[in-house]
Design goal:
- It is a single chain.
- Helices cover about 60% and strands about 10% of the residues.
- The chain is elongated, with a radius of gyration of 21 Å.
- Strands 1-3-2 form a three-stranded antiparallel beta sheet.
- The N and C termini lie far apart (about 50 Å).
- The protein contains six helices and three strands.
- Helix 1 runs antiparallel to helix 4.
Amino acid sequence: MTRNNEEAASGLFAALAHSGRREILRYLRDRDFVRAGDIGAALAIGPSTLSGHLKVLRQAGLVESRRRGTEIQYRLRMSLVDEAILALMALRREQEATGPDDPEDASSATDEREEPIR
């Protein structure tokens, strides 16, 4: 992965890290160009909070917007969501190739002669 791709992935995953933004993406999944006010009303998200979430999602490339008169409409950019899924699958393959990262596995490798801390 190149540096630019890593930076883009970092922004993408940061955008996906918030449950409210994931809820917005789920809402937009089966809709095409929804007014911001309709998104907020459907998900009970206030205008300023919604605006912040949509800005992060736009910057990450997960949604696109268009202006229609005085309103802004949003829709999901599926191609980028597909790329995110592929990136996550690649991370999983890397993890599977290197083995488990389970703390219990690491603790079993300790010296059994150690006395418990009292």
